[in-house]
Amino acid sequence: MNFKIRRAAKEDCKDISRMIMDLAIYEKMPDQVKISHEELERDGFCQNPLFECLVAEVPEEHKSNEGFTVTGYALYFYTYSTWKGRAVYLEDLYVMPKFRGNGIGTALLSKVAEIGKKKQCVRLQLSVLNWNTPSRDFYAAKGAQDLTVTEGWHAIRFDGQNLDNLANEAPKD
Amino acid sequence: MTFLDPWGQESQKQGSWRGTIHVHSLKELAEYENLAEHVKVTQKDLEQDGFSKNPFFHGIIAEVPEQHRTKEGHRKVGYTLYFYSYSSFVGRAIYMEDLYVMPEFRGKGVGKALMSKVAQLALAAGCHQLNFTILNWNKPSMDFYLGQGCFDATATIGYHCMRCEGEALKQLAQL
């Protein structure tokens, strides 16, 4: 199947938002999605964007049953390792189920790696759910190491009321 | 006893120390985490990447008054380094890359002060999450953080941290 990987434009945010929800459903946490295409437009297409995004597009003749030609996306941003320097974090990588097996996921992932390399990034990092075997296998086949398994790293988070409480304890300036 | 210096104010005026404390503390943190040989970043890298027009990271220093300086003369006794990230579910977030306090200054609220300052800055910037990672054997840190109200997304939800680097990353970029 023919497809094209390109940088997302502001107009793609509705499609990206649609696929973010699909991904959230797949990850069994649809109630966690709090932002819509409006926040994506504001945060990804301003003067200092908070993220970058690539989309996969198929020709009109291969569009989905619902009429979508944008059938995959990769959303990422730049991070920093105090040990190694610049890095890129792949927040989401998603391909619509009917379009899998055509190399779209690989193309999106390697494009992110290439973009990161051009910016002198020395690492590409991401998270995957432990029960998500197809994804774990996909990334392992691409040479990713599972640092939770090999080194014992755990992802920790403050949000909601706990984040508010912590912030309220900050020393006064 | 401590004051926090939001990066770029007092620090910029002082000039010459910039970067010194960080490589020193980075190496101590790396040694604690048994991974010292992995520190490749130099003082120059930190200066370039953290103090340009669009910095890759931000930092906060904990500094003690002159009368509490260490035997070696250090007044900067802790730091945290963070950057802005993005969650496709909730939007803007903050990632705390490092939090470190020199051993003889622990147990005095310095770590808590640094972390809560990051949380305050996170909320002021419209962030909805403060994320970071810790090693599962690092019990003092685990206990400290869980005591502050965070949750372990690896233990509770099953997130695994993955990384591609070196030769694997090079090959991936060439596909």
From TrEMBL, chain A:
Q: Give a Pfam family name.
A: Acetyltransf_1
Give a yes or no for keyword Iron-sulfur in this entry.
Answer: no
> Which molecular function GO terms apply here?
N-acetyltransferase activity
Q: Which InterPro entries match?
A: Acyl_CoA_acyltransferase, Diverse_Substrate_AcTransf, GNAT_dom
Q: Does the keyword Acyltransferase apply?
A: yes
Q: Which UniProt keywords apply?
A: Acyltransferase, Transferase
Boundaries of every N-acetyltransferase domain copy: 14-164
**Source domain of life:** Eukaryota
CDD domains found in the cross-reference section:
NAT_SF
Give a GO biological-process term.
polyamine metabolic process
Q: Which family does it belong to?
A: Belongs to the acetyltransferase family.
Query: How is this protein named in the record?
Result: N-acetyltransferase domain-containing protein
Which source organism does the UniProt entry give? Astatotilapia calliptera (Eastern happy)
Automatic annotation (TrEMBL), chain B:
Using the record's annotation, list all stretches that form the N-acetyltransferase domain.
21-175
Supply the name of the protein.
N-acetyltransferase domain-containing protein
Q: Name one Pfam family in it.
A: Acetyltransf_1
Extract one GO molecular function annotation from the record.
N-acetyltransferase activity
The superkingdom of the source organism is Eukaryota
Keywords linked to the UniProt accession: Acyltransferase, Transferase
Q: Which organism is it from?
A: Astatotilapia calliptera
| InterPro entries listed in its UniProt record | Acyl_CoA_acyltransferase (IPR016181), Diverse_Substrate_AcTransf (IPR051016), GNAT_dom (IPR000182)
Return the similarity comment: Belongs to the acetyltransferase family.
